[in-house]
Design a protein that fits this description.
This is Calbindin. By secondary structure, the protein is mainly α. It has 15 helices and four strands. It starts with a helix and ends in a 5-residue tail after the last helix. The chain binds calcium ion (3 copies). The site of one calcium ion has 7 residues, from β1.
């Protein structure tokens, strides 16, 4: 099944999802290490069998990841090399270029501030994206995209998208949230930290307080975080703020481990 899909025909969003699932064997949302090497090997074999050379994009991909046993790709990287009908996944790439843009988008579409993008919010997000990209669609297409997106990104199957789940739309390198995975804290720890940096107890922290917090986090977690990137981290996280006020709930999305 996966093999024929690798032979160069345009595939549907659903087929794309099948390929993704097939190669993300451990289901962690990335194709990495051995999974990635398997994918590359089978891609090469499938193209050969079909009498096709690798496309330019595939060649560049194989050059970049073929010898790299630490390689790791996300959905966005896979979408670059497998041509899908309607280029379903590629317009995310065009619309969400950086972590900061992604965080702003998140803030805008999580309209009920639940900390999740639920089905209706996801639908609104996709609707706006389609309109922006000047793609024609009808209600059933929109429904199909919404369901596909959910199946693709809802790793814990709770029927809604969390921030880290949805951040998988970003290319791996742009996804600063991945770096914060290793420094996430329990709810209790997080509350302590928040109170420490929210010195006047206003319930939110401002940009300077966030910077102080990030610098301390970088100091403590040198292997995960790079102090030279504090400005980028700050910009992305502040995109979640409410006019410069970063409330506990929003910062928790980045720093607090999921309790459920
Ligand atoms: Ca994986
Ligand atoms: Ca929500
Ligand atoms: Ca979920």
């Amino acid at each position: 099944m996966a093999e024929t899909h690798l032979q160069g025909v345009e595939i549907s969003a659903t087929q794309f999802l099948e390929i993704w699932r097939h190669y993300d064997t451990d289901g962690n949302g990335y194709i990495e290490g051995k999974e990635l090497q398997n994918f590359i090997q089978e891609l090469q074999q499938a193209r050969k069998k079909a009498g096709l050379d690798l496309s330019e994009k595939m060649k560049a991909f194989v050059d970049q990841y073929g010898q790299n046993t630490d390689g790791k790709i996300g959905i966005s990287e896979l979408a670059q090399i497998l041509p899908t009908e309607e280029n379903f996944l590629l317009f995310f790439r065009q619309q969400l270029k950086s972590s900061a843009e992604f965080m702003q988008t998140w803030r805008r579409y999580d309209t009920d501030h639940s900390g999740y993008i639920e089905t209706e919010e996801l639908k609104n997000f996709l609707k706006d994206l389609l309109q922006k990209a000047k793609k024609s669609y009808d209600d059933s297409k929109l429904e199909e995209y919404t369901q596909t997106m959910l199946r693709m990104f809802d790793s814990n199957n709770d029927g809604k998208l969390g921030l880290t789940e949805m951040a998988r739309l970003l290319p791996v390198q742009e996804n600063f949230l991945l770096k914060f995975q290793g420094v996430k804290m329990s709810g209790k720890e997080f509350n302590k930290v928040f109170e420490l940096y929210d010195q006047d107890g206003s319930g939110y922290i401002d940009e300077n307080e966030l910077e102080a917090l990030l610098k301390d986090l970088c100091d403590k977690n040198k292997t995960e975080l790079d102090i030279n990137n504090v400005a980028t981290y700050k910009k992305s996280i502040m995109a979640l703020s409410d006019g410069g006020k970063l409330y506990r709930t929003e910062l928790a999305l980045v720093l607090c481990a999921d309790e459920n």
